[in-house]
């Protein structure tokens, strides 16, 4: 049987198609994730820090356990190039359902354990409700087919049902006074809405089928990713446990809010990686092409991630004063640190996609284990000793170790790559923008008012835009050229 063509490029080159896909994903996912960010702020305005802390315990405790279900089945499906793509999808769907069923059993056991550990019996009912959304995640697997084909418009349109429905339900119920139940029921409604539209749009029938050889192939690819999932559980659960022990449930709410805001930059940057991954898998043996894609895609992502993270650090206090409310004042320092971490952590952020596309997943496990070791040896003790300040210092140490391992493996894959030069070039446009705001503040600032804060923000954005235009003009012209190019006749 002849293999089904991987892409329908519609007369474009692969670069042009990927560039256009990036625009589609950017426009769409920026909107969807902005909706999630607004939802977080709106709901935070209706909830107390304690109620938000309950949600933080549930999402981090149960959400991190769900990482065990995400062991690279979808990545392996996108990477493969089997002649019978219907069978290939059904094999991947079968394995996804098996891991999902195992995850449900684990979560049902974990809910009462979590309630016992935290001493909050009120976690039981919302915890069990969250478990009910897990089967819906497996039923969203048909989206993988459109992803592999790089049919991003179709994929993202279907995918929008989850966050849009979830956000509407969550905000409405929070305004009605349901507390953390608004977030729980919103997540549940969104997940099942996404499942319904995905199943209806599936290009292939949903059937269970798998062979031993195929299962072994997925296992070889997935076990290092599973190790990474286990370590992320250790880090997330350890952060919440140590934070709750050091500063209480309200402190956990501060940690959850700071992490959710800073992770917004990660969600947007994942647009680039998610767009490129199917294309990277298609050219996985062309190392020079991979190197070019890695460098340029990371620089483009830093144009968003670096200013967002640094801007978050610069304007964290204003965000509390004029945005989410003074009750979140204790979280300002943590938000500032998480912002800086988010900016720096974008250097080489998409390195794992290139190793996954080549089927080399062991480095992912090694990097995860080293990072976890630093977390246990440094971050946890500092959090217990110094509360939120200790957590901030520990997070810096942990991210430093992660970046060092990332640089080691990227240099091994791409000879001649300089992590320091790459970092300085990517972060360069953000430096004068941050310096301009700091100089204005040293000179007395523009007034302690919303208007003054907005004026400083406009200054930051304007200086960054000018610096980016000067320092990254060739790259911007190249990207614009791909977008302007017309399909070949």
Description:
This protein has 489 residues and is mainly alpha-helical. It has 20 helices and no strands. The protein has helices at residues 14-46, 49-65, 73-79, 85-118, 124-131, 134-138, 143-148, 152-159, 161-175, 180-200, 212-282, 287-314, 316-324, 332-344, 351-357, 362-413, 419-427, 430-442, 450-471, 473-484. α1 runs parallel beside α9, α11 crosses α14 and α11 packs across α15. The radius of gyration is 23 Å and the shape is globular. It starts with 13 loop residues before the first helix and ends in a 5-residue tail after the last helix. The model has no long low-confidence stretch (mean pLDDT 83).
Quaternary arrangement of the chains shown? single chain
How many β-strands, per DSSP?
0
Give the averaged pLDDT, no decimals: 83
Radius of gyration: 23 Å
Helix content: over 70%
Largest sheet: none
Our count of helices gives 20
Give the topology string: H per helix, E per strand: HHHHHHHHHHHHHHHHHHHH
Shape assignment: globular
Low-confidence sequence ranges: none
* Separation of the first and last Cα atoms: 29 Å
What fraction strand?
A: under 5%
SSE-based structural type? mainly alpha
């Amino acid at each position: 049987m002849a293999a089904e063509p991987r892409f329908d490029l519609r007369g474009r080159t692969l670069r042009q198609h990927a560039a256009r896909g990036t625009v589609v994903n950017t426009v769409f996912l920026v909107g969807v994730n902005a909706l999630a960010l607004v939802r977080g702020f709106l709901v935070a305005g209706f909830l107390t820090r304690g109620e938000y802390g309950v949600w933080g315990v549930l999402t981090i405790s149960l959400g991190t356990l769900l990482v065990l279900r995400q062991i690279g089945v979808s990545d392996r499906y996108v990477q493969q190039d089997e002649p019978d793509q219907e069978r290939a999808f059904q094999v991947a769907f079968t394995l996804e359902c098996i891991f999902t069923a195992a995850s449900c059993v684990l979560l049902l056991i974990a809910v009462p354990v979590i309630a016992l550990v935290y001493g909050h019996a009120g976690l039981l009912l919302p915890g069990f409700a969250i478990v009910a959304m897990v089967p819906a995640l497996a039923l969203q697997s048909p989206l993988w087919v459109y992803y592999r084909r790089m049919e991003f418009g179709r994929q993202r349109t279907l995918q929008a049902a989850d966050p849009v429905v979830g956000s509407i339900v969550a905000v409405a119920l929070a305004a009605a006074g349901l507390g953390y139940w608004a977030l729980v029921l919103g997540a549940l409604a969104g997940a099942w809405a996404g499942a319904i539209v995905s199943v209806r749009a599936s290009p292939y029938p949903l059937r269970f089928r798998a062979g031993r050889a195929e299962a072994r192939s997925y296992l070889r690819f997935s076990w290092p990713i599973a190790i990474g999932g286990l370590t992320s559980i250790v880090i997330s659960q350890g952060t919440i446990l140590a934070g709750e022990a050091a500063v209480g449930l309200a402190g956990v709410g501060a940690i959850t809010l700071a992490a959710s805001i800073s992770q917004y930059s990660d969600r947007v940057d994942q647009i680039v990686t998610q767009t490129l991954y199917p294309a990277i898998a298609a050219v996985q043996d062309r190392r020079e092409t991979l190197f070019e894609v890695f460098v340029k895609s990371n620089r483009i992502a830093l144009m968003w991630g670096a200013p967002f993270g640094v801007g978050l650090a610069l304007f964290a206090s204003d965000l509390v004063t004029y945005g989410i409310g003074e009750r979140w004042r204790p979280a300002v320092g943590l938000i500032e640190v998480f912002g800086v971490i988010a900016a720096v952590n974008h250097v080489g952020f998409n390195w794992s996609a290139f190793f996954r596309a080549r089927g080399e997943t062991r480095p992912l496990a090694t990097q995860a284990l080293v990072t976890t070791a630093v977390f246990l040896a440094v971050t946890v003790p500092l959090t217990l000793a110094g509360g939120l300040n200790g957590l901030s210092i520990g997070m810096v140490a942990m991210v430093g170790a992660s970046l060092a391992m990332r640089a080691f493996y990227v240099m091994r894959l791409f000879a001649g790559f300089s992590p320091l030069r790459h970092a300085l070039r990517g972060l360069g446009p953000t430096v004068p923008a941050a310096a301009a705001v700091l100089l204005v503040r040293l000179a007395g600032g523009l007034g302690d008012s919303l208007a003054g804060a907005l004026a400083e923000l406009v200054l930051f954005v304007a200086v960054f835009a000018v610096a980016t235009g000067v320092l990254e003009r060739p790259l911007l012209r190249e990207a614009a050229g791909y977008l302007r190019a017309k399909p070949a006749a």
